[in-house]
Amino acid sequence: MIKNSKSAIYNPQLALEGSQKATNFIREIIDEDLRTNKYDGRVYTRFPPEPNGYLHIGHAKSICLNFGIARDYNGLCNLRFDDTNPTKEEVEYVESIKEDVRWLGFDWNDREYYASDYFDQLYEYAIQLIKKGEAYVCDLSADEVREYRGTLTEPGKESPYRNRSDEENLELFERMKNGEFPDGSRTLRAKIDMSHPNMNMRDPVMYRILHASHHRTGDKWCIYPTYDWAHGQSDSIEGITHSICTLEFADHRLLYDWFLDELEIYHPQQIEFARLELSYTVMSKRKLLQLVEEDYVKGWDDPRMPTISGLRRRGYTPEAIRYFADRIGVAKRENMIDVALLEDSLREDLNKRSPRVMAVLRPLKVVIDNYPDDKIEELDALNNPENPNMGSRKIPFSKVIYIEQDDFREVPPPKYFRLSPGNEVRLRYAYIIKCVDVVKDKKSGEVIELHCTYDPETKSGSSQSQRKVKGTIHWVSAAHAVNAEARLYDRLFMIEDPSGDNWRDFINPNSLVVLTTCKLEPSLATAKPQDRFQFERLGYFCVDYDSTPKRFLFNRTVTLRDTWTKIEKAAKS
Ligand code: ATP
Ligand code: MG
Question: Within 13 Å and on the Cβ side, how many CA atoms surround 8?
Answer without folding.
Answer: 16
